[in-house]
Each structure stands twice: as structure tokens, then as C-alpha cells.
Amino acid sequence: MPMLPTLDAFDLAILDILQRDNTVSQRAIALAVHLSAPAVQRRIRRLRESGVIRAEVAVLDANRLGRPLTLLVEVHVHDEHPLRTAGLRQRIAAEPAVQQCYAITGEADYLLVISAATMADYQALSERLFGGDDNVRRFRTSVALSCLKSGLQVPIERDAAAP
């Protein structure tokens, strides 16, 4: 893993712009943060190489792509030992319909966010992920009725003197 860079006010301002819209030109970013375009370019390259910027992607509308269901799934396992959960973790990582997966504290062990076209699709998916795995004690599914907020933006704290 590359060493994490020290982020200054310029880096934070650049990141704030890019995470809202990564199609903003480097020239426009330079004007907004009061740096030269080459300086912005160097900083963005450093932020990519260090892993601060993990990916640059298009955010798609699942409804318009025929996947209107968002399901939140709590998974409870018998044994949390990495050797006992390796198969489950591999199946989850390989499944494109699983948008997010978190190992969590509390009653459940994992929380998954899943996109599905139909309940039948989800039923088949849940069978692929959990069926036949004797370490999965149970799973509980909640269907999202509506989305109040969805995003991946990380709050960036900058002091008042920042660009």
C-alpha cells in the first residue's frame, strides 16, 4: 500500500470538487483553488497513486437499468473465524449484485446492500450466497421502500482560511 500523503488545504479543496463531479476540468479546478493547472494535475496524480482517490466512476440509476430493488441483508454466522467465513466472503466479493458489504458489530456479523431486478432474482441470489453454507446461521432481509439519501461523498473538513 502506498504511503499516505499529508493533505493540505489545496488537496482537500481539490478532493471536495472531484468527489462532487470528477468531470470538472483541471483548469476549472485550478481557478477554483487558486493554483496553476500543472500544480493541480500533479496533486491529482499524487492523490491517485497514494490511493486517496480510489476510483473514478459514473454513478448509475439502478431504476433506469431495471434494478428497482435495494435490499439490506443482515447475515448472522455461527463462527466468525476467518477460515470459517472465507467461502462466504469470497462469494459476496464475487457477486456483482452486492453493492456494499460491511463486517459489523452488534447482533449481525455482516450487512450487505444488494441491488436486484425482482424478488425472484433476489431469492436466487440469496440461495447462491447463503444456501448450503453451514456456517450461515440465518439472514434477515429488509426491502428499501424509498431512498432518502445515497452517496459516497466523504465529508471534508477545511478551515476558513482554505482556498
How would you describe the overall organization of this protein?
The protein is an alpha+beta fold and 163 residues long. The protein has five helices and four strands; from the N terminus they run αααβαββαβ. A four-stranded antiparallel β-sheet has the order 2-3-1-4. A hairpin with a 6-residue loop joins strand 2 and strand 3. Helix 2 crosses helix 3. It starts with 8 loop residues before the first helix and ends in a 20-residue tail after the last strand.
Keywords:
163 residues; four-stranded antiparallel beta sheet; alpha+beta; single chain
Shape: elongated
Structural class: alpha+beta
Radius of gyration: 20 Å
Terminal residue distance: 29 Å
How many individual β-strands?
4
Task: List the secondary-structure elements in sequence, H or E.
Answer: HHHEHEEHE
Name the average pLDDT.
94
Q: Give the strand order of the largest sheet, numbering strands 1, 2, ... along the chain.
A: 2-3-1-4
The portion of residues assigned to helices is 25-40%
What oligomeric state is this? single chain
Our estimate of the beta-strand percent is: 15-25%
| Biggest sheet features | 4 strands, antiparallel
Number of helices, where a helix is a run of at least 4 consecutive DSSP H or I residues: 5
Low-pLDDT stretches are: none
